[in-house]
Amino acid sequence: MKIAVAGIGYVGLSMAVLLAQRHSVRALDVSPDRVARLNARQSPIQDPEIERFLADKPLDLTATTDAAAAMAGAGIVVIATPTSYDPATNRFDTSSVEAVAQQALTHAPGATIVIKSTIPVGFTEALNARLGTDRILFSPEFLREGRALHDNLYPSRIVVGATTPEAQVFADLLREGALAADVPVLLCGAREAEAIKLFANTFLALRVAYFNELDSYALAHGLDSRQIIDGVSLDPRVGAHYNNPSFGYGGYCLPKDTKQLLANYDAVPQNLIRAVVEANATRKDFLAERILALRPARIGVYRLVMKAGSDNFRDSSIQGIMKRVKAKGIPVTVYEPQLADSHFFHSPVERDLARFKQDCDVILANRMTPDLADVQDKVFTRDLFGAD
To answer: pLDDT tens across 288-336, in order?
Structure first.
C-alpha cells in the first residue's frame, strides 16, 4: 500500500519509518532541508532508533515538498503537522491540519485520512462535516521526544477514533509494524479518542506538578525531598515512576495539551485541570526566588533542551526560570550546543563549556550530567534521581 505522511517532525517521521518497513511511504514536508536530509537517510531530528533504521533498514521511504506527488495513489494519508497552542484564541492552531486534509481530499480521492496531530475534542467530527466527508479519522500518539520510534515499535496502546473497517485497517498497520506482541487496541468514538490524548497528558502533567509541589514544600521547610518521595513512592498505588522533581513540566506536548483541555472545560465545572496549568507557573516563580536569594552575579543556563536525548527546547521549563531571573536584572549566559546563534533572547550563548563554568557563579540545570560534576557546588538543580 502507498501511504503519505505529512509532517516529518518526531511524530510524522517515526510514523513514516514504522510504516515504511512493509509499505511504500512518501513523506511530505514544507522544509526542503528536512526533505533533503531524509532522502539522504539522515534524520532531521535527534532520535537514536530513527537514525539506526534510516542507516541500516531497507525502508521504502522517500520525501518531497510536493503534496500531489506524495498523495497521488495513496490509500492512507497521515497528518502529523504542528498544532501549537494559540493563547490569543485559547485553542490549538489547527490550520495546517485543515490545509493538509483539504489537499488529501483533492489529491488522494478515496484515501483514509488519519490525523496524528493533537487536536481539540470535537475537531474531527467538525472537520468531516465542514469538508463534506466521512474519511477523516483521529488516532492519538503517545510518544516521547527522542524515543518516538521506540514508542511506535513498543506501543503502550493503539487508539483509533472510529469503529469502521478503515479504522481497523489503520490499527492493524500500526500493530503490524510494531515489535511488541499483544499490543492493546482500542477503537472508539472520535471525541473519546481526542479526549484520551488530552486527559492522558494532563494526568502526566498533574503527576509532575504534584512531585514538584512536594519538593517546593520540602525546600521551604528544610526537609529532604528525596526521602519523602522515596517513602511516598513505595506505595504500589503511587509507584516510583515519573516522580523526579524538575523546574516544571515542559516540552511540546504537556504545556499546550493541559491548556487545551482546560479550554474544553469552558462549560463544565472543574478545579484540578486549572490547578495543573497554574501549578507550573507557581513552581517556576518559587524556584526563581530561591535562585535569586543566592545573590548570583551571573547565572548560567546549562542546556535549553527539555530532556536528555532530545534536540527540542520549545517550552522547556528552564526557559521559564531564565525569563524570571532576567526580569530581575541578573545577567544570564546560555550553554546550548544545539544553538547556532550567538544570542538567545538577548542572552549570550557560550560554546566553550569550561569558560561557561568559569564565568557563571550559579548554573541552572534541569537535569544533572557528568559535564557538571566538577562544579557541583555552583549547580542549582532539583534533579534528585538522575532521570527524566
So the answer is: 999 999 999 999 999 998 666 566 676 789 999 999 999 999 999 999 9
36: Cβ contacts below 8 Å, ≥ 6 apart: none
Q: Where in the chain is the domain with CATH 3.40.50.720?
A: 2-188, 197-380
Which residue has cell 519538593?
215
Q: What class does CATH assign to 2-188?
A: alpha beta
Residue 203 CB-half CA count within 13 A: 7
- Of the candidates 159, 253, 334, 379, the residue annotated as catalytic is 253
Among candidate residues 300, 291, 205, 279, the one with its CA nearest the CA of residue 249? 205
CATH class of 197-380: alpha beta
For the stretch 339-357, pLDDT in tens is 889 999 999 999 999 999 9
Continuous H helices in the chain? 10-19, 32-39, 48-56, 67-71, 95-107, 123-131, 148-153, 165-177, 190-221, 225-233, 254-264, 272-292, 317-327, 353-359
Rg of the chain over Cα atoms, rounded to whole angstroms, equals 22
Lowest-pLDDT choice from 253-262, 280-289, 366-375: 253-262
What residue type is assigned to position 284 of the chain? K
Q: Is 188 a catalytic residue?
A: no
Instruction: Quote the pLDDT of residue 27.
Output: 98
Cα→Cα distances 160→130, 151, 169, Å = 21, 16, 10
Instruction: Count CB-CB contacts under 10 A for residue 243.
Output: 20
Rounded to the nearest 5°, which phi and psi values hold at 196?
A: -55, -45
Question: How wide is the angle at C-alpha 387 spanned by C-alphas 384 and 388, nearest 5°?
Answer: 115
